[in-house]
Amino acid sequence: MSDTPLHRHYTHYSELPVSMRILYTAALCILGMGYLFALIYLFHTYSGRDGNPLDLTYNDLVIAYTGSGKGSKLEAAMRGPMSAMLPKDEAAALVNWVQQGADRPTYETFIAPTLEKRCLSCHDGSNPHLVNLSGYDNIKKLAEQDKGTDIFTLVRVSHIHLFGISFIFFIVGIVFSHAYVRPLWIKYLVIGAPFVCLIVDVSSWYMVKIYHPFAWVTMSAGAMLGMCFAFMWVTSMYQMWIGRTPKAVLERGGGDVG
Ligand code: HEC
Predict the structure, then answer these.
(1) How far is the CA of 81 from the centre of ligand 1 (A)?
(2) Under 8 Å CB-to-CB from 132, ≥6 apart: which residues?
(3) Considering only CA atoms, which residue is closest to atom 30 of ligand 1?
(4) pLDDT tens for residues 181-239?
């Protein structure tokens, strides 16, 4: 298996003109940088969902896609840090209103006066560090239930991901196709798997909404994608500039030393 002969159209990096190797290297460098920034962004966006910003876990993903199940920000604040700011009956009325859908007429007759009296001394918008509670629109936003990323957002991110990431792996795959890897199936797998992972990854976001454990699929597909990228990147760079020309290439008269 390890001596599978070279395909007649196969060219090793050492047989490529320097100009192409420069182009490949430059593209790999930029894509590698892009990948790093994407990881930072991913971590920053998702890791704090479960209250612990230090790691990216199963719970982070479930909350991001399906919501925390803890109701709105306003309710959370009323039960938590803001509970001392108003009498119990007023708090109950406020929570009740939020749960009934936070309509505008009730806001104007009953809710606005309460907020005015109990909350606006701090939350009138003059302090940029505190949420602004003045006006219906501001309150309405805080009263929205946290249901996680909505389907439309997922659709938007899906098409960006599918287009963008398949381009990245197409380019990296083309570069990597010049690598000399035996047994050959490893090469086929590393080139093909990212596209399967991409489909699985994007589909799993929707599935998490239906069945939470699909978050494991999301994480595994993402991890596989990253490993394939790293493998192709490192192997390509190494064989392009550092590694010796493989014997099989030299023997058929290829390579820049042969
Ligand atoms: C004495 C000043 C003060 C008053 C009065 C006050 N708050 Fe706050 N509020 C704060 C501070 C400070 C924070 C931010 C620190 C924290 O989250 O504990 C905060 C945070 C919040 C948050 C954001 C929590 C989050 O998830 O980020 C909400 C919502 C909130 N308050 C609602 C209210 C409501 C409703 C009232 C009136 C019933 C009220 N607050 C009255 C000082 C006040």
Answers:
(1) 7
(2) 123, 124, 125, 138
(3) 77
(4) 999 999 999 999 999 999 999 999 999 988 889 999 999 999 999 999 999 999 999 99
